[in-house]
Amino acid sequence: xxxxxxxxxxxxxxxxxxxxxxxxxxxxxxxxxxxxxxxxxxxxxxxxxxxxxxxxxxxxxxxxxxxxxxxxxxxxxxxxxxxxxxxxxxxxxxxxxxxxxxxxxxxxxxxxxxxxxxxxxxxxxxxxxxxxxxxxxxxxxxxxxxxxxxxxxxxxxxxxxxxxxxxxxxx
Length: 171
Hints:
This protein is an alpha+beta fold. It folds into 2 domains: about 60 residues, Winged helix-like DNA-binding domain superfamily/Winged helix DNA-binding domain (Arc Repressor Mutant, subunit A), CATH 1.10.10.10; about 70 residues, Alpha-Beta Plaits. It contains 5 helices and 6 strands. Strand 4 and strand 5 form a beta hairpin. The longest helix has 13 residues.
């Protein structure tokens, strides 16, 4: 069963959550803590055989609960000392949204982008090696992307790192 929401004359369909049991929760908690550990160690931590653990993890991936397993890099150490949040307002036309999406997807400096509700339409996270690189990204968003209004917020310091989801077993 899907949940259906209406937001600003648009219909948004949200899929229902996958049912998770205690073992799934333990596996996901361990994976969120350290996804680089070997399957044998993961199996020991959750109390399953390695084969059963591998099957569970595969099922969690196939169901979409685990989208991908990646490394989290430190942007400053990797050479991108500027991290900026950009709030964007785009024209209210489908063609404008498609044009903006295309520009966002083509800019590797944009490391995350979400459509949002409120005073702006989109929230982007942009990394840059220097102010000139940031200016180039913002210029592309304004020209090729059709951004009507941009508000930039310079990230000073991490207040709280990305945290694991607060998982509980499905009812």
